[in-house]
Amino acid sequence: MVGQTGVRRRRRSGSRQRGREERTATVEAKQQSVFRIQPHGRLQEWVADEKGYFRDEGLEYEFVPGGFFGNTGTVQSAGAHSLKSLTSKEVKDGAFESMEAGRACEVSAACHWAVNMASSAEHGKMWGHAYSVTPGGIYVAPESPIRKPADLAGVEVGVGYHSGSHFSALQALERVLKPEETTLRFIGRPFDRLAQLLDREIAAANIFGAPLYVLEQQGFRKVIDTTFMIGFLVTGDATQEQVEAYFRALERAQRDIDLEPELYKHYFLRELPERYHGMVDVAAFGPGERIVFEPYTREMYERTHRWMEDLKLFPEEQVGHADYAEAVLV
Fold it and tell me: How far apart are CA 82 and CA 250, in angstroms?
């Protein structure tokens, strides 16, 4: 009898262990099924959330705060007037490096140059069925003597390393300046550049998205346009079905924004640090980034990659060589 009791106890113990393992597996599966979203400073995800478009698509999702766009690259708690001691130090960490290290979401956004290189280096797959276009420009203070693009010769222009502001500045300036006349300074992420421009700590900086509208309402002047493309990188455990559902929801949101952008501009306040809220009236903002539901083609991929390699914008150890068919989801 003692032996049989021991066997029954072992069976019950084994059953409880299997039960715990099954519950743990269920929880882990549920966690993996949640689609994590970072809006990247734009309106579309907030509109899709408000209108229930993600839910309509059956997408179980959550918003992940911060992300590359929202964080600073110079100091985590930098205030609008606390960067003076940091302007002498360049920040050699940007959008590409954040994708190389891995981001806390299933689909992330960055300039198409960085996403192109990240996907070619197998840090994820580039989504081949959509991209977005964001307004951008190199801005100077209202009192600046810099008036036209040629005046930027020899002037330090603040940009983010291996990020949209870096590549778009080069692309715009190569049309008007000689290579030796272009001087870029890597001063961190979007809100770092905004803060340093407002504090007159740099003569010019390349700005896009909501920070651009903040500057314009403070009288800052655009010297040259740097509008550029943004791509999407698919990583993690996202399924094809989840990604397609995500983009179907964004497409509906984009139509709403196109039709009546005024209804949704208040969401820009969620993307701006609170210290800027009192400086702006979002009613005067533009609609910001616009998602284009067209293919990112092989020709676009290869032409962009050649341009980056020709200019040697990445060290050899970061350069990817994957073919379009391997790097892009089509």
Answer: 37
- Tokens representing 271? 């993307």
Six token digits for residue 263: 């209804």
**pLDDT tens per residue across span 60-72:** 999 987 655 554 4
Residue 259 belongs to a domain = yes
Q: Do residues 45 and 108 lie in contact, with contact meaning Cβ atoms separated by under 8 Å?
A: no
Can you say how many angstroms the Cα of residue 244 is from the centroid of all Cα atoms in its chain? Answer: 19
For residue 179, is it within any domain?
yes
Is 127 among the domain residues?
yes
Give 12-63 as a DSSP string: HHHHHHHHHHHHHHHHHHHHHHSEEE--TT-SHHHHHHHHTHHHHTT--EEE
For 230-248, the pLDDT digits (tens) are: 999 998 788 999 999 999 9
pLDDT in tens, 74-132: 433 233 333 333 445 799 999 999 999 998 889 999 999 999 999 999 999 999 999 99
Q: Please report, to the nearest 10 degrees, the dihedral formed by the alpha carbons of residues 88, 89, 90, 95 taken in order.
A: -130
User: Cβ contacts of residue 217 below 8 Å, gap of 6+?
Assistant: 279, 280, 281, 284
Task: Establish if 12 belongs to a structural domain.
Answer: no
253 lies in which domain range?
34-329
HSE value, Cβ hemisphere, 13 Å, CA-based, for 240: 5
- What are the structure tokens assigned to 187, written together? 């001063």
The residue whose two tokens read 């964001």 is: 134
Total domains in the chain come to 1
